[in-house]
C-alpha cells in the first residue's frame, strides 16, 4: 500500500525527535535541530493541508493574499480575523518609547507560566489590535511590520532606483517562456533586513513547468516545524494553484528545502501526540474560475473541499 503523503511531514518530525541536535536560538527557547532537509508533495494527490491536526486554512489563505497585495500592515490581517503576525507588531510597540503600560518584557514566555501576567498581556494585546484597526497614525507606525514579504514580492527596490514586481514577472515569464530557469522570487533583501519585524524565513521560491504542469520549490533558512511548517506547505501549495490557474496550467509538485529545520523544546510533547494519529485523506481546493488574475482573488474565491482533520493541538509561539 502506498504511504500517505502526509508522512513526508510526520517523518521529518520523528527524525527531529529521534536525531535532532539540541541547539540554542534567538528566542532563548531551545530547539532540536537538523541542517538540510527536503520534502516533496504531488499536488495532483490532493491539497497538502495536514490532517493529523487541524490547520486553519483561512489564516493561510488570508496571509498569502496579504503577501500578494504587497501589503505589510497588520490591519488587513486583523480585518480578516488573522492574528498570526500580531506578536511581532505588538513587540515593536511595547519596546518603543511610546508604550507606557505594564512591563511586557519576554511576554511570549511569561504569558505561558504566569496566569496573572497573561491576563494583563491579553488586555494589552487587545488594546494594541484595536489601535491598529482604528487609529491610522498608530497603524502606520506600530501596525507596519517593515519591508516584509509583500514588499519584497511586489515592490522590490533595486540599486538602480527602479521598483520590481517579482510575482508579475514570474507570471509573464511563464506565459512567454515556460522553459525558463529564471522563474524565481527572492525575499531576502539584505539591505532592508533591519527594517523588518522578522527577516524572511521562507526566503525564495522557484517555479518549473513541464507537461503542462506547474511545480514549485521553496527554500527556508529557518523553520519551526510544529507551528510554522504546516502553514508554509499549504501556503506555497495555494500559491502554486493560483499561478497555475492564471497561466492555464495544471499543478505538479511542491518541493520544500529547509536549512535550519527545528522543533522547539516546548513543542516536543505536542509533536509526540500528533505522531500517534493516523493521517486522513487530503482535501482538494477549488478556485473561482471567473477570476483571471491572482491579484483579484479574495478569501471567498478559494474553497477547501473535503477537509476532515483530527482536532488542533495548541503550542506557544516563540517570538
Automatic annotation (TrEMBL):
GO terms for biological process: dTMP biosynthetic process; dTTP biosynthetic process; methylation. The keyword Zinc does not apply. It comes from the Bacteria. It catalyses: dUMP + (6R)-5,10-methylene-5,6,7,8-tetrahydrofolate = 7,8-dihydrofolate + dTMP. The active site is at residue 201. GO terms for cellular component: cytosol. Residues 8-319 form the Thymidylate synthase/dCMP hydroxymethylase domain. Catalyzes the reductive methylation of 2'-deoxyuridine-5'-monophosphate (dUMP) to 2'-deoxythymidine-5'-monophosphate (dTMP) while utilizing 5,10-methylenetetrahydrofolate (mTHF) as the methyl donor and reductant in the reaction, yielding dihydrofolate (DHF) as a by-product. This enzymatic reaction provides an intracellular de novo source of dTMP, an essential precursor for DNA biosynthesis. This is Thymidylate synthase. It comes from Jeotgalibacillus malaysiensis.
Amino acid at each position: 500500500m502506498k504511504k500517505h503523503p502526509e508522512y513526508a511531514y510526520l517523518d521529518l518530525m520523528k527524525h527531529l525527535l529521534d536525531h535532532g541536535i539540541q541547539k540554542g536560538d534567538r528566542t532563548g527557547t531551545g530547539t532540536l535541530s537538523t541542517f538540510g532537509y527536503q520534502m516533496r508533495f504531488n499536488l495532483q494527490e490532493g491539497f497538502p493541508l495536514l490532517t493529523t491536526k487541524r490547520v486553519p486554512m483561512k489564516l493561510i489563505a488570508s496571509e498569502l493574499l496579504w503577501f500578494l497585495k504587497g501589503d505589510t500592515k497588520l490591519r488587513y490581517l486583523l480585518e480578516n480575523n488573522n492574528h498570526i503576525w500580531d506578536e511581532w507588531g505588538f513587540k515593536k510597540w511595547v519596546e518603543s518609547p511610546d508604550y507606557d503600560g505594564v512591563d511586557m518584557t519576554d511576554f511570549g514566555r511569561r504569558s505561558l507560566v504566569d496566569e496573572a501576567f497573561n491576563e494583563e498581556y491579553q488586555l494589552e494585546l487587545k488594546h494594541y489590535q484595536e489601535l491598529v484597526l482604528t487609529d491610522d497614525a498608530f497603524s502606520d507606525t506600530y501596525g507596519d511590520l517593515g519591508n516584509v514579504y509583500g514588499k519584497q514580492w511586489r515592490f522590490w527596490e533595486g540599486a538602480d532606483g527602479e521598483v520590481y514586481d517579482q510575482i508579475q514577472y514570474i507570471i509573464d515569464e511563464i506565459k512567454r517562456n515556460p522553459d525558463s530557469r529564471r522563474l524565481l522570487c527572492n525575499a531576502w533583501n539584505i539591505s532592508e533586513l533591519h527594517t523588518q519585524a522578522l527577516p524572511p524565513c521562507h526566503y525564495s521560491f522557484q517555479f518549473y513547468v513541464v507537461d503542462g504542469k506547474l511545480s514549485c520549490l521553496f527554500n527556508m533558512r529557518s523553520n519551526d516545524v510544529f507551528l510554522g511548517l504546516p502553514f508554509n506547505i499549504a501556503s506555497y501549495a495555494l500559491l502554486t494553484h493560483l499561478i497555475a490557474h492564471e497561466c492555464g496550467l495544471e499543478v505538479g509538485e511542491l518541493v520544500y528545502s529547509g536549512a535550519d529545520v527545528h522543533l522547539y523544546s516546548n513543542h516536543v510533547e505536542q509533536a509526540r501526540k500528533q505522531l500517534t494519529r493516523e493521517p486522513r485523506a487530503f482535501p482538494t481546493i477549488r478556485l473561482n474560475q471567473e477570476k483571471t488574475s491572482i491579484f483579484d482573488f479574495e478569501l471567498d474565491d478559494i474553497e477547501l473541499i473535503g477537509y476532515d482533520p483530527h482536532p488542533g493541538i495548541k503550542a506557544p509561539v516563540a517570538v
